[in-house]
Every structure is written in C-alpha cells, then in structure tokens.
Queue: 3 jobs
Job 1
Amino acid sequence: MNNKRIGLIGCGAMGSALGKGFVQKVGIDPSLIYLYDINKERMQALADELNAQTTENLSELVPHCQHIFLAVKPQDLESVLYSVKDMFNQQQIFTSIAAGITIDYIESCLSYESKVVRLMPNTPCLIGKGTIAISVGENVTSDEQEEVEALLKPLGLTIRLPEYLMDAATGLSGTGPAYVFLFIETMIDAGVSVGIRRDVASEMVIQNIIGSALMLRENDKHPAELRNIVTSPSGTTATALQVLEESGFRHCLLKSVIEATKRAKELRSV
C-alpha cells in the first residue's frame, strides 16, 4: 500500500488531518500524496507542511491515484464527481467524508461499477483521537476496505457500520464533539459563577471529562452504575442530578442527536 498514490481533494480541516495522518503516522512517502483545492493558498500551505504534490486541476490528480479522498462539503461534492467521472478507472477507490451523501448517489455520479467508501469522521481526528464510522459499496473488496482502514488508523477509532446508520453516526459522533464542548463550556461558566477562577475551573472540568471517560473505558460497568457510585442519598450529586432531570437535560440531548440525524438526511437534497 505504501507505494500507491493518494489523492486528496479538499485541504480544509479534515482533509488536512487526513494528509498529515498519511504522512506523519502511516509513513506514506509525501511524494505519493497529491493535493487539490480551489483555495490555492490552503493547498500550498498543506503541501509545504507535508512536502506533498500540488495540482492545478483534477486531471492532474485523479488519473494518477489509487486512493482518492473526497474531503469537500456536501453541497460541493456533486460538481466534483461529475468533473472526474471520465478521468478514473474501475480499480480506483473513492472515499467520501461528505455528510448525508450516500454511496448510491456517488456511484450514480461516477459509475455503478465504481469502488466507493463513505466515512463520517469527527474533529478529534485532528489530534489522532477521533471516531470514524465507515461503510463500503458493493464493489469494494474486504482487502480494499482494510487498506482504507489502515490509512485511517492514525486518526482514531474506526467503526464499521451498515450505510443506513451513517446519518445516525453523523448525528451522534460527527456532531458529538460540539455537544461535549458546549457541556464543558457551560461547566466552566458554572464554576466561575460559584467563585472558582476561570483558568482553574477549566483545568478541573477538562480533567473531569478525561477521567470520567477513561473510567468508562476501563470498566465493564454501565454509565448509570458509575453515576450511582457518586450519588449519595440527599447529597450534592443527587441534588444536582435532580435539577438536570427537571430541566430536561436528558430529553434535550436525545432530541439534539435525533434532529442532527434528520438534518444529515436533508443534506442529500441541498
């Protein structure tokens, strides 16, 4: 795999994370990485950082790469696909991170014999701690899927899902870091409101999140069991949790994931 050329269409945050992972963690020779972005400054900045190849147009990238990663916004994907449909062969693998855009749709734009992989990553991929849901089209072999997963491994945890769950993965995991960041922001503000200095509150809350997540990872216990351990009768935790329940915290979070999932489905028609 290490001698196969990789094309990266889109050099934004997630595209850059992919490129850096390929070179810095997987060990791909940067001369085998071809970049394209309509924003030439952004493309050149990533190329300079990685020592990768820049291209002036898609015809300089697509015919030469075995793996082509589509790291563009959902509303821009269609034009990219129609631009490249006459440039590729059936052995190349197209991997898309565009939310809401189905494998069937991508195949309809390229060819129903094309090899298509669909991903839903999240922003912690930028530091190698992300979650990446992956589904593959019928023309992708198991060896090819493993090849793609090997490229993604440095970015975090890869989870195989049937494609009908990819919109749900978008609502839960792709959007998930924003829920966590908002929770952390609010907790820090709460710490300040009860008299703790902001920088100290920030350290406390972030460590709380890290420690709690690691406890879940290292235990077989359900989250409710760990929550009950710290909830004494009539204690401070019980009082706080009662307020959260009365305020609809659980309901709001459930609804947020459901609505984000619906929005992912709507992106197909945008």
Job 2
Amino acid sequence: MKRVSLLLFPALALALVSLLPLSATAQATPARPAITGISHVTLFADDIAKSRQFYTATLGWSAVPAQGAQPGIRFYANHAQYIELVSPPSPGLNSSLANRLDSVAFLTADAEALRRYLAAHDVAVPAAVTVEKDGSRSFVVRDPEGNKVAFVQAGRPLKEPATAAQSVSNHIMHAGYEVHNRAALDHFYKDILGFHLYWQGGNPETRIDWVMMQVPNGSDWIEYMLYLGDHPTRAALGSANHLAPGVTSVAALQKQLEQHGWTPTPGSNPQVLGVDGKMQLDLTDPDGTRVEFMEFKPVKEACCSSYTGQQPEPSPGW
C-alpha cells in the first residue's frame, strides 16, 4: 500500500496537530478518586473530660487518643468513623469561641490522587498529604467560605472494642454546617468534587433552608444550613454545625439512651418527624453541638422535594 503524505492534505494535517494539545491536557488532568462517605467531625471542647462522659457513657462510642499532632480524643462509631474533640486554639477562647466546629472530613480511596486532582482544579492544597501513626493519609483544604474540609484515606482499622455493643449508632451518615453562598459551595462540592443533590427543603416549604449534597460514591452527605443570619449566637451555631448518627428506630434509640442514664425533658416527646420524612431525636453535647439521630429510611413522603440518591444503611460493623 502506498503511503500518502500529509503534505498533500494540509487541512487534515492541521486538524491532527490541533488535537495534540487537547490530548496532552487530558492526560495531565488527574482523575478524581472515589469519595465514599463521612470520615469524622472535629469539634472544639471546653472540657474534654466532661465531653468524654457524653460520648462514651451516653452514646456508647469507644474513646481513642487522637493520632495527629493536635492533642485530643476520638470517639469511634465504627472502625472508620469518629468524632474528634480538641481544645480551642487558645485557652482564652474557651468561653468566647462561638463556633465549636473545627472541620468536617470525608473518606477517599486515594488521598494523594485527590490532592493532585483538587490542585488541578485551582483549589489551594498543601504540598503533601499527612501520614498518621495508623497509616492513614489526609490533607485539609478550605471551602469557598473558609471552612476547613479534610479528606482521609483510611489506615489500619481499629480492633472491635469490648464496649461496641453499647453503641447507640454505628454509622455517622451526615454532617452539616453554616453556609451563606450556596452557588459557591455547589461549585466546590458538586462541580469539582462530584457530590450531587440528595434532598432540599425548608420550613415553610416555600423556602430552602437545608440542602443535602450526597458523596459521589456512597450514601453519606453534607448538609448546607442556609437559614442563619450574619451574626448567629453560639446556640444557633451549635444547632447548625451538627453531626447525624443513623439509627433504625428512634423509639429503640430512646430506650437505649434511657438505659444509659439519659432522660428526656419532662412533658415533651423527643421523637420528631422531620420535613424530610425521617424520624429524628436530637441531643446536645456539653459544648452545645447538636447530635441529630436520624432514622435511615423515611417513614412518609418528604416535603419540598424528592430524594434523588441512595438511602443510607447501618454500618456492616467493625
């Protein structure tokens, strides 16, 4: 077969050459690794010993010293998910620091690959991932409103503790925090990280107060809390910046909590049906952070919008 010189077909040659930069760019842009769920929530605690009593005795979660450079303590709901308590950055801030949320963290299959991916999408990232004692790898970025968001590649799993049977929940299925600019957060979570809308609604239903954005490779989500004003109180921030352990039944949860010594407010029913169609029961930790226990499945049709993603399930265990 005769070879045909591209010099005889200048238009074809130009077209082929024009594809080269595009191919090189495509190869240079890293793929986004899987983001599978909530890893942990880190909170500031005024009195860690007092908080330890809440998370271990009331919630039944196992206490383990923090692995990182920042001293603190972790309370594990399962082998990969936990709440981390650390002291405020300055002792003098204990009474004046209204925002008790330090950061929210998500699990990823490959922390280094995700760090490179975010850098390629113009997100400021650290120069390298941090490797902890347990072999986990992580890094922290800031969302468009300056909130700390961490990504963790899990290390060696913990052994199942003897107290695991006391746990009132074995799956932290979402966390939420104060958001003012939904479009900016959507660009970060949806356009760059691949999260998708799971549900949104409000009270009244004509208003959007809550936006749930589900991770791209799992059933957990982050919730934008859109209803706060410019100068929220510590109590309002404690309610907005929350964590949500999942349960099969809040009625069974209440019985278990009461066995652990918790008592509901006299004359009130702590079990509430949310506008999202799921039953919930709220507790507050010693620093005012809301712990929103929520049933995995809705018991009625959700207000305002339909669910568009996978419903969460209990963790398979340790």
Job 3
Amino acid sequence: MWCWQAMRTFVYVDGFNLYFGALQRTRYRWLNLKRLCELMLAAHNRIERIKYFTAHVTQRPQDPLQPARQQAYLRALKTLPNLDVVLGHFLTHEVKMPLAGTPVGQTLKYLTVLKTEEKGSDVNLATHLVHDGHLDRFDLAVIISNDSDLLEAVKIVKSLGKQVGVLNPHPNPSRVLMREATFMKPIRRGPLGASQFPDQLVDATGAFHKPTRW
C-alpha cells in the first residue's frame, strides 16, 4: 500500500541577495518568508525551519532611518514560528580607487572612498547548510539566493543523499547553481505580492507596524 510521506524541508535565505535581487525595486519588502515558501514549494514539502542570514545595517546621512526599517522587518520575521535570524557583520574602510574616464596616456587620478562590505552571510549559510545536512535534519534544503559561491556546499549536501533546491531572486540565474540544484525556480512578483505581512503585527512586546516608507 502506497503511503504519502512529507519531505522534511529547511530553507536558507541570503537576506541581502534576496533584497537586491527581487525586493529593492518593488513595494513587496514586508515579506512573509514562510508564506512565500509555502506558495513556491510543493505541498509535500513540510517546512520545518527557515534560517535568515543578514547583518545589521548602519545609519547613513542620506538614509538615517534604514536601521530602524531593518529592525522592524527582523521583528516581523521573528513572529514566524521556527525561523532563526543568523547575523554576520559589515566592514567599512577607506580605499583608494582610480577615477573613471582618465584619457589614455594620462596619469590616473585616485579618490579615497568609503567601501562597505557585508561579511559572513554566505559563509554562515554554507556552514549551516552542510552542518544540518550532516546531522540529517532535512530531506530537502531550499536556498533563496543566486550566489555561485554556495556551489561547493550544495555539492557536499547532495553527496549526502539530500536534495537541494534554489528559489532564485535574480533575473539571470547562476548557471553553475542551475546545473547542480535539484530544481531552480525564479521568484516572481506574483508570489511576492501574495506573501506580505499584515501592516500591523503583534509580538510579545506589543503591536508594531510596517514602515511607512522604505
């Protein structure tokens, strides 16, 4: 007798890759990740845990409210059951870079600029993915990212007999991830629009609202 069995599913979200790939140019930034995954994955995928990898942004003169918006969104995510936020960090330092448009034959001019780099999210994601796979915590891992640096981690997890799917937030998918993944699906505006949190949410601290502007 055939017996239907749910597939234990863990979801790994590269927060900045998702934001810059699918959310930055839309109004769908108040995103309920659990609902998005439910819409995009098969009914037999039982989502047991979602891990969201990001870093705290810092205040900038042109956008002083950016950290407050991020904190509101992280607070919204924490209302979801079985969701973990895993933090990396930002590094900001001065670097000298050549000025574009210098005519051939002339000495390059350099400007000192502030360079901000997000560190840790891709490494943290890959580490959790491999670690959870070795501990046999899932049958299917779903990565929300288009970062080809995750390729080796995907290969290792597949060598354990696990399946690895990709929900791709970018218009141009990574070819190496596409070749290795069990499946790859683009994240389109329809599921994003259908996966928004309510404007007001309540947690243990009280009620809070979606930011009025992004």
